[in-house]
Design goal:
globular; mainly alpha; single chain; Aminoglycoside 3'-phosphotransferase, Chain: A, domain 2
Amino acid sequence: MRALQADDGVHTPQAIPGKDGKDIQTVSHPSLPSPRNCVLFEFIEGHEPRQDHALTEPFKQLGEVTARTHEHSRKWKRPSYFERTVWDFEHSLGGKPNWGPWLEGPDMTPARRPLLQRLVDAIEKRLKRFGQGPDRYGLIHADFRLANLLIHKGDIRVIDFDDCGLGWFLYDAGTAVSFFEHKPEVPGLIDAWAEGYRRVRALPKEDEAELPTFVILRRVILFAWMGSHSETDLAKQEGPAYAEGTCEMAEIYLSRFA
């Protein structure tokens, strides 16, 4: 986060070092079974974008910011100790999913399973063909949803790097429309994102054509997350209608790409 801000001007909350000069402090307490690693971050100003606001211009700005993070990803030499989550197919929807199996998503029924299996198979096939070349795959934020963005005086700021890891660069676009992937305005917002992205970094037409794959990939990953985090308020709020919406999106996607 420090290098991203210093090298490429992406505004992120900066860690505040302890008195010993170290960012990470180990804290213990008799009530804790084991010590905790803690980091204190500075406060940065801004407000979260909202779905019911005009988002076209913010998405253009987000496209620029995303492109700067990807440019930084390609040139930054990661420290030897640097280790993060992997967001390839195997760890997203495959045999070792980071957020649980999609088969255990909310309101999964025997009738829905064949359709979603066809969808997952189609996604896997297209991602394999798309490949993991250095222009398409690297270190990404992996969670650019609206709740993790702050707008301040026209500047898009980025928080919450919990899910930062190795994945497809275009997956970051899919995360930007998290929880409203099915809305009619999403294609226009993705176009705005792509316009902003191209201001900073090349986006070949064949790559842009694959953006719907990464939108639906994110949708199914979140579907799995809701199944494995059913106790959370977010899953309780979004889960009941998420299966039906995911199936509707699957039908549309398969009609175009399968």
